[in-house]
């Protein structure tokens, strides 16, 4: 029987990495991901997880250790936040192009400057195009579950691609939530040991990471993009099978009370739970409002997304990052280009909220929905600025 | 000098395997001693080897997709992270062998990089790897500049050398800093084995690689790799230049085994540095005063090294 416990989300994530029987963990401290690696080091030092715990000297090396060990055929895990991600980003890109099934948890935190240890999505948006499969988790259960799902998808021979789980720093990492833990036997059934297609081993020599001359580079990138786009059905299949085993089904896009909705709010990550309270409040007053949550960020689920907002007149996109001098936030830019090919697309209004740990309440969502409706021609706004 | 080489030749050459693990067809410049050093290193570390290679001349001349000169498995990821990638390979192999997923086998994990990739941008990753004690060999191929990007100075470029970012100008005569002492920095990590080598002394080089691979724990080898293109020297003088570097004391060959220093070739007398400088275009502009200054420093450094040998001698 699966057990339901109250647990700090970071601890639940580490417990999942243990149950996933990771081989190599590269660890470097940065708030707010630190509790995850701290707990993993405990598990290793107490003999509960048989893994190499590599306490690297930087995040750049953390990702490099993951790349080396994954290429050698090991199941590799690391996590980071913000500045750590920025520092490792060079190797984040390399990991994807080398098609290595590494799992990383990114505890989202804003990027300097000014220094802020608190949550927003400026870190992940800086590597949006790095070629990793990227999901946003909404609560502790999703974080725990996606450790298994992430490895399973990444290591699928039809996928072979690194996988990133975004979890909101502090808002998720440091809270105690009810988490239903899986029996080890269920995990083992869902996630078989990693069987690499190629590995660095003298018995079968390969040269990995050769340089790409101009005559081949474009072709290599096209192949990578095609392979990446083709991961979608395998991600969906992995979610489906996880649901069949556990009763918890996940989808690229989640909808909440979108039936007959004229206005639809769009969120990523933990904002979804707060927004759904706002939806209930507005629905109670008879307002036709719904919520769409983007779980799968890359590859972007265009079809599912268009279906989810079909019929709406107004789409209100909540971003937690700024694209300076651009179209508002990065999510809004994405949504607009997803909707543009539709002849009759809804109006898109963008609010940039929750930067650097700024709280967002259900009332804020109600206000933003009203303001978007009342202000035709509005493009984007950084919301909640203290004047 | 020759008497030492002759003696080595008697037994060493016959023991060296005919087998090549770094094969011809690569695109190194004529007379590239870095390519020769890689070949000798590969001969010594043999088949049970996995390579992590940094960006730089070696990567570029050895593996343009879809070709490769490597008969042993290898990975190139980036410029500054070779030691970390090698740490990862070592950790990964160790974990999956321990967990019974692949058979137990001794595999040499070897990280290779240039002097820029080692003493500048890769120093942090290297220091981390050495400190953590991974069972791996790290080899720095020191051609004393960023050659792959067009002969820019590094912290390993010797004093006075003219490069494209330390040009011999009217006011500043080339590199103004002394060469960073990378082998000493590696030794300061208290690792079991550090050595310097040069492909002009092939058996010595191979012997050191073999030793490094056998020793449990991290080992560091610093190989002076003459670069005719960057040093402005005729390709046929590569081997000769390497010998002169050693015989003038500019690049002494030594080992530090578990803290004990040992000269691989104990020169009764150093040749004048000018003999080494004369054949290289990068030193052409040196004034007598500069040469004398370097000469003094080379003698001092050599004496320092000899003192370390004395102080750490057994018994
Ligand atoms: C992060 C980063 N910075 C700069 C470069 C450009 N770069 C590639 S190779 C190289 C020079 C390599 O010099 P060295 O390590 O001495 O090796 P060599 O080519 O001399 O053998 C440089 C500067 C890079 N690839 N990555
Ligand atoms: S530039 Fe120098 S090190 Fe690079 S391939 Fe040519 S000779 Fe060798
Ligand atoms: Mg160099």
Q: Can you give a write-up of this model?
A:
The complex is a heterodimer of chains A (387) and B (315). With 387 residues, chain A is α/β, with parallel strands linked by helices. Chain A has two domains: 3-246, Thiamin diphosphate (ThDP)-binding fold, Pyr/PP domains (Rossmann fold); 253-382, Rossmann fold. In chain A, 40% of the residues lie in helices and 19% in strands. Chain A is built from 13 helices and 16 strands. Chain A has a seven-stranded mixed β-sheet, with helices on both faces. In chain A, helix 13 links the parallel strand 15 and strand 16 (380-382). In chain A, helix 1 crosses helix 2. By secondary structure, chain B is of the alpha/beta class. Chain B has a single domain (5-311), classed as Rossmann fold, CATH 3.40.50. Chain B has helices at 2-15, 33-45, 57-62, 82-98, 115-120, 123-132, 182-187, 202-214, 228-231, 238-247, 273-278, 288-311; strands at residues 49-53, 74-76, 108-114, 137-142, 193-197, 219-224, 254-257, 260-263. An eight-stranded mixed β-sheet of chain B has the order 2-1-3-4-6-5-7-8, sandwiched between helices. In chain B, helix 2 packs across helix 8 (202-214) and helix 4 packs parallel to helix 6 (123-132). The longest helix of chain B is centred in the last third of the chain and has 24 residues, at 288-311. Chain B is globular and about 65 Å long. The mean pLDDT of chain B is 95. The interface between A and B is large, with 45 and 51 residues. The complex binds thiamine diphosphate, iron/sulfur cluster and magnesium ion (MG). Iron/sulfur cluster is lined by residues 28-29, 32, 34-35, 57, 61, 143, 147, 227-230 of chain B.
